[in-house]
């Protein structure tokens, strides 16, 4: 009886040992075998949400598996980011990030994750400059007018953002720092709410992604003053850059990327990287994105890791120079 139990135990153990590596290899080699969830740690309607859904739709067609986009906003992107950091590293829960996450490495000391330790960089998605817009009732027609009004009324004007640490917040702080003015920051829960706030006249101005603010400019709900890139935007070619319009050297942007939880198999990371690279490199996609003022980004995982680290350092300097954190 004991001998039968021993033989049975040995057979079970051997089968388990044989199945484990085969299952692990299959999990990576057959990826994806079930639906993928892409978590957006921001509210609906923003740039990250828009392009996560675009990416999800294209990945679904490539993989033949459902790709679900789930918004988990809150805490300046921390809630959704922490959720993915704790997820199983199996490639089925992914994070769309922006430069919010890279600046939060400096701004938020008590965040429950470390970007470079708790995630596998998968691939960048795209980048874009921003547009500076003012409410219709604000008596300004240019960057120069806005700076003059801020100096005339120190601390009285305000600007909207989608939360602390977002690209729109950084753009606003960099603007007032370089202009030498004092302005109040009004953080909303999402960029959609901030956008609506400016259009409704609740706040004086904001920096926003061109793709999501363009309709508000085109139908006259807000006044566009400038864009924030090194060069003029093809979407608003008649608008000067902020640098051209009176703050030489000013530059701000928003970029998006995809991360996976730490420990995700390299084969899965490589599969996702190739798929996203194919999407970003598609001429039709590139043409459509450039109409939105968006440029595709393509890098392999090691290059994207280096880019993340460099962006953390770049934004740390901006945050320190703007007085957003203590040195």
Question: Could you characterize the architecture of this molecule?
Answer:
The structure is a single chain. This protein is an alpha/beta fold and 327 residues long. It is 47% helix and 20% strand. Strands 1, 2, 3, 4, 5, 6, 7, 8, 9 and 10 form a ten-stranded mixed beta sheet that branches. It is globular, with a radius of gyration of 23 Å.
Keywords for this entry:
327 residues; alpha/beta; ten-stranded mixed β-sheet; 12 helices; 10 strands; globular
Number of DSSP helices? 12
Number of strands: 10
Proportion in β-strands: 15-25%
Provide the succession of SSEs: HEHEHEHHEHEHEHEHEEHHEH
- Helical percent range? 40-55%
- Overall shape: it is globular
Report how far apart the termini are.
72 Å
Return the structural class: alpha/beta
Largest sheet: 10 strands, mixed
Radius of gyration (CA) equals 23 Å
Which stretches of 5+ consecutive residues score pLDDT under 50?
Answer: 1-26
Q: Give the rounded overall mean pLDDT.
A: 91
């Amino acid at each position: 009886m004991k001998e039968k139990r021993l033989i049975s135990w040995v057979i079970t153990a051997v089968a388990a040992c044989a199945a484990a590596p085969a299952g692990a290899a299959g999990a990576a080699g057959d990826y994806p075998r079930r639906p993928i969830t892409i978590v957006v740690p921001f509210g609906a309607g923003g740039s990250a949400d828009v392009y996560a859904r675009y990416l999800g739709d294209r990945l679904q067609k490539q993989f033949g598996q459902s790709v679900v986009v789930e918004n988990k906003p809150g805490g300046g992107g921390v809630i959704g980011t922490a959720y993915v950091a704790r997820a199983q590293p199996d490639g089925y829960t992914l994070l769309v990030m922006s430069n919010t996450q890279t600046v939060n490495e400096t701004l938020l000391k008590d965040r429950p994750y470390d970007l470079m330790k708790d995630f596998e960089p998968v691939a960048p998605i795209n980048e874009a400059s921003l547009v500076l817009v003012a409410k219709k009732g604000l008596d300004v027609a240019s960057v120069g007018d806005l700076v003059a009004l801020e100096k005339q009324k120190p601390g009285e004007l305000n600007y909207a953002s989608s939360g602390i640490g977002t690209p729109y917040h950084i753009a606003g702080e960099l603007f007032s720092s370089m202009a030498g003015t004092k302005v109040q920051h009004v953080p909303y829960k999402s960029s959609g709410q901030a956008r609506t706030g400016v259009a409704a006249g609740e706040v004086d101005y904001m920096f926003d992604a061109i793709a999501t603010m363009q309709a508000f400019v085109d139908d006259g709900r807000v006044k566009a003053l400038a864009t924030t890139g090194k060069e003029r935007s093809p979407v608003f070619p008649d608008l000067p850059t902020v640098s051209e319009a009176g703050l030489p050297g000013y530059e701000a942007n928003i970029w998006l990327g995809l991360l996976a939880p730490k420990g995700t198999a390299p084969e899965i990371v490589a599969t996702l990287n190739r798929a996203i690279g194919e999407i970003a490199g598609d001429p039709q996609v590139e043409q459509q994105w450039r109409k939105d003022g968006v440029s595709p980004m393509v890098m392999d995982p090691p290059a994207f890791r280096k880019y993340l680290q460099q962006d953390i350092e770049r934004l740390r300097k901006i945050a320190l120079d703007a007085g957003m954190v203590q040195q």
